[in-house]
Design brief:
It holds the Pfam family WYL. By secondary structure, the protein is an alpha+beta fold. The chain contains 10 helices and 11 strands. A 5-stranded antiparallel sheet has the order 6-5-4-3-7, sandwiched between helices.
Length: about 325
């Protein structure tokens, strides 16, 4: 048992006990030596300002004569929880394109200090938590912070948006609803006041973002999910149908463990292939993901999506016939 866990256990024992607890019992409950018990009691009393009273003969207890119940101060986590938190923090830092680095730096320093204090001073090898960004896009830090602030403060947001598909620049006034991290990139779900509809915006395409003093219009979560999360992909919309994709036995070992959509339906076929069904609105993103598997995947239904896949494959093949 590491020190932080012993201190936590010692605190629970003294809090629950109406009478002084002997050193012998503390040794047994904490699974440590007599000297360690005294060190932990001194740490609890002198460093954490706990009302510890007593001696080695009569035992130790909390003095609650002032009527106040003592609680451990600050952030108290086990070493395993601290390591998990540090790993999660590293994941955020390394997948955020540097946008979150400054904001999370104090948290990282605090976590590392807690680990040093309660893990015997051992160095935490942060470099062994390896996160490799894949196809991330460069974000403007100011724009990202303004977007996040508008979402959390529930304020309207004005910005310039450069659509990736057309490269057209437009000025938008929106009521931010949700900030979504999807496939290592950030997206803003918002109510577009000019178009009077819900839209999703890629945050890396947002520029000159300015917060308004006007309160944002709130759209119920059920409506957001119905329009923006009910179909496949980030720019999904209301489902127009279901796609059926069959993967050969080799790809099935991967696809069967993958999450494509919250409403997906999957099953193994008798010959070892895997059949996956997902709701979709626009087939663009779904086609890209299916074609990623090459000859290991086949779109079975609907016929229109199957023909789109055939056309894309023919076009790709023509690039190599020159």
């Amino acid at each position: 048992m590491e020190r932080i866990e012993r201190i936590h256990a010692l605190h629970r024992i003294l809090t629950a006990s109406r009478y002084p607890v002997t050193v012998q019992r503390l040794q047994e409950d904490l699974e440590c030596s007599r000297a360690t018990v005294y060190r932990d009691l001194a740490y609890l009393r002198d460093y954490l300002m706990a009302p510890v009273t007593g001696n080695g003969e009569a035992g130790f207890r909390y003095d609650h004569s002032d009527g106040q119940r003592f609680e451990l101060p600050g952030l108290w986590l086990s070493s395993e929880e601290l390591h998990s938190l540090l790993a999660a923090q590293q994941l955020l830092l390394r997948t955020g394109g540097g946008v979150l680095s400054n904001a999370l730096a104090p948290l990282q320093h605090r976590i590392e200090k807690l680990l040093d204090e309660h893990a015997g001073g051992r160095r935490v090898p942060v470099e062994r938590v390896r996160v490799i960004p894949h196809r991330t896009r460069k974000l403007d830090e100011t724009a990202f912070r303004n977007v996040a602030t508008a979402v959390l403060d529930r304020k309207q947001l004005a910005f310039e948006y450069r659509a990736r598909s057309t490269d057209e620049r437009t000025r938008r006034l929106v009521s931010p609803q949700r900030l979504t991290h999807y496939r290592e990139n950030w997206y803003l779900d918002a109510w577009d006041h000019e178009r009077d509809a819900l839209r999703s915006f890629s945050v890396d395409r947002i520029a000159a973002a300015k917060l308004s003093d006007d309160a944002a219009r709130d759209v119920p979560d059920e409506e957001l999910d119905r329009q923006l999360a009910s179909s496949y992909g980030i720019f999904s919309g209301t489902p127009k149908g279901w796609a059926t994709i069959v993967f050969n036995a080799r790809a099935a070992r991967w696809v069967a463990d993958e999450h494509w959509h919250s409403q997906q339906q999957g099953r193994f076929l008798a010959d070892g292939r895997y059949e996956l069904k997902v709701p979709f609105s626009s087939g663009r993103e779904l086609l890209m993901d299916v074609l990623h598997y090459g000859a290991d995947a086949e779109i079975v239904e609907p016929p229109s999506l199957r023909e789109q896949a055939r056309a894309l494959l023919s076009l790709a093949l023509s690039q190599y016939d020159r």
